[in-house]
Amino acid sequence: MDGRTGFAAAIWYGWLMLGEGLAKGLWVTARNFIGSYLSEERLVTVQYPEERRSLPEATRSFPFLVYDGDDPVTGLRCVACKICEAECPPQCIYIVKDKVKKPDATGKLQNQPLIFDIDISVCMSCQICVEVCPFDAIKMDVAYEWSTLDRFEGLLLHKEQLSKPNSYYHKIHPAEAAEVDARLAAARARAAAKSSGSSARPVGVGAATPGSAAARPGAATE
Ligand code: SF4
Ligand code: SF4
Questions:
Q1: pLDDT at 198
Q2: Ligand 1: nearest atom to the Cα of 77
Q3: Could you tell me the pTM of the whole model?
């Protein structure tokens, strides 16, 4: 084989390889296209926004505030301690504590936020605010449809928009919400037992520390 013939053979082989790759790609496309009419598992797209895929429980978008019961004011768990505001890396939380206290879900007077804003155009969904909140008052939402033409006020969420019932938390993160409920119920039971003097726990054991479950019921009533 002379040089010219060898070069022509290499070109031909290259085209053959290219053709084979192309044929394989077309075969995969055709198989999925036709298969999508026969099996839903082959559907890789949905007719959004009419259809939406269900989200995994671990999905997180931006934070929201949890309230117990039916009233977003009295039921709000947040006691305006401002820990989340201080710890938020991009500083997108803004809180002003109300001078007026309100009874919480158990009837005890608690501090409350007068203003609680989160700028979700800055929020990076890191969840640090959730991790540091000692009162399980702030959790990560799964809502992601926030497109707006107003990138300032449209993406600055206020307390009223942020407040969502515990039932919503259960709907989007059922396992996590059940675990939080159990922890809070245990903490309330411990606090009730302690205040009624029936607790057998020795002084100093299980004492409330910032961030502990025992710190939650009535911990911010000063
Ligand atoms: S850390 Fe929790 S209780 Fe404190 S201000 Fe933030 S959300 Fe409210
Ligand atoms: S998720 Fe992160 S960035 Fe967003 S408000 Fe919480 S701490 Fe700040």
A1: 56
A2: 3
A3: 0.75
